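[step 3/7] fold_predict: job queued, chain A
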Amino acid sequence: MSSPPGRVPAVAVATLALLMIGASVWLDLVNDAADRDRAMMGWGSVSALVGAIAVATAVPVLWRHPRHPVAWVISGTGLFWGFDGLCESWSAYGLAHPPHPPLTGFAVWIVAQVGAFLLVGLPLVLVLYPTGRLMPGRWRVVSVVVVAMACTLPLLLLFAPTSALNAEEFQLPLDTGMPEIPVPGDVFVALLTVGRVLTLLSLPLAVLVLFGRQRGATGRERLQLRWLLWAAVMCLVVSGIALVLHNGWIVTIALMLALGVTGASIAIGILDPEAGDVDALMGGTVVWASVAGTVIALDLLLVAALDRLLGDRLDERDTTLLLLLVAVTLYAPVRSRLTAVVHRLLVGRRGDRYSVVTDLAARLEESGDVREQLPALAVAVATAFKLDYVRVEVFGHGGGTIAATYGELPRDVREVPIRYGEEEVGRLELPARGVRSMLSKRDQALLVDIVRQAAMAVRSARLADDLQQSREQLVLAREDDRRRIRRDLHDGLGPVLGGVAMRLDAAGNALDRDPETARRLVAQSRQDITDALADVRRLVHGLRPPALDDLGLLAALDQQAERLSTSDLAVTVAAEDVPPLSAAVEVAAYRIASEALTNTARHAQARHATVRLTGSPGTLLVEIGDDGAGIDADVVAGVGLRSIRERAEELGGRAEIVCPPTGGTRVRAWLPVSLDPEERR
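[step 4/7] structure written:
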């Protein structure tokens, strides 16, 4: 079965790299050290191995994206490394077997002069990654300049005159036979100096282009660039290790490791940047490198101090035992403590999850008010994650917000919602850039714990405020009702009854001498008493609809539906599994249904309306629907709609008023009920 067309390039590149490294290894095994020294050549298989590593990181990208420019740049660079290594091995072999085999001069020319093109691959990758296209605008011009600068020295060396190379203290082992540029050697040396400077400057300029891309990147592209940033940090760490150890083979291995890490990070960034937690890798790498560097420095100081104090007084065995004794008894605790201090200085206390959450809980417990809790939360987050800026914002009831800020506002921030269940009660603002702002999955879990703790505290504080406001409203409402009843009794019913008593006295006095006047006074008193009874009924109805006591909730709703039904509007009432209800729930259900039906009769222009009561464990659903015109989106809620919501919320329930796409209006109210009405009293 033939391979799909997209996989042919990957297979071809991998096969070619393997063939070149195999040939290089075979030639290096044939050559001896004296042959390489006479030819001034090294192990070509090392360069071939570097090329194979680069190809290995690019093959997965070519397999999936056979036309991706970055993959082809890395593959081409890797193949060129392999070819350069093969030419180095062949040069050593050819120079050791005169007369020289074919292509020996060509191989020497590749190694000595064409190999400088190996420097072009890295800046080219930096200006193309991750999209494979140059940035638009002025950055495109800068990118082209970067590539041109990177090619300056390789192009000059391509056909450099032998006199110029000799002036650079580089002696070719033989005449390569390649054409030379007819320029005097001293002039060409100056050109080579300029070309070397331009080529070296192309790398920092390419890094500048990469930073420019990162500043404008969002989403997936920003995540891809973080993978390359982690690779850069790893290269710095590996380079530091190589400089400290200062061993030839270790330096070579370190460089190969850096190349492999860079290629692998580029491949992951292109194929699937979400495959791993790059923020955790970045933070862990920086912390590990810092801690390791500090500890190694202290280790070297300890060894140097002991060596200076003891000198040659102890042999190697005694020195080793003394070092172990000092390390175990004295240095190990200091080293462990130092590791913790460095970790905290770099990334804060995010590693101590339990301590962070418990300290925050203690702070929030000490601060009872939301305005005092928010600064404590901001400080806790900033301390835990070692951030320079944290802003906490809590939404108020009237649409306003309460906020607390720690630090100065950076250029870019990201928001983290604070949720209590499904309700968003606030949000956190954190810096969007910098190593400390990169949160691993473990850090994100800690942030979730902090946010959850804060949400509970904020929710509790808001509930306390709601409770206090409810108490104040209840007191105010009670006093308003008392004042209204007192006014009605004092100004209305009292004078009426007083007038009745006076008329009855006058009627008694006139009974013998003027019976007609007595009858008129008695009739007038009777009318006054009738009016007073009507006022009493009005007062009682305002406290609780009498129909609920006389008929019950369902019959009272039927009566209300019959009263509002007309020739144009038919109202029906249905109930299902309605449990025993407390007096407060009965009044709320009756008032909500009456208000909704009244709105339907006045404004909806409906032909049919339905009231449905449905009981479920702990809840009574009151649903009123009609087939009318609905409510326009720009209509401001009036007193009736607000009263429906308020009556549901004051019992701890909720209400919604919606207009379905099919037309009409649907009012739903969920009222909490108790199976035992006495519990509600």
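[step 5/7] annotate
The chain has four domains: 5-218, 295-347, 353-456, 548-680.
The radius of gyration is 44 Å.
exit 0
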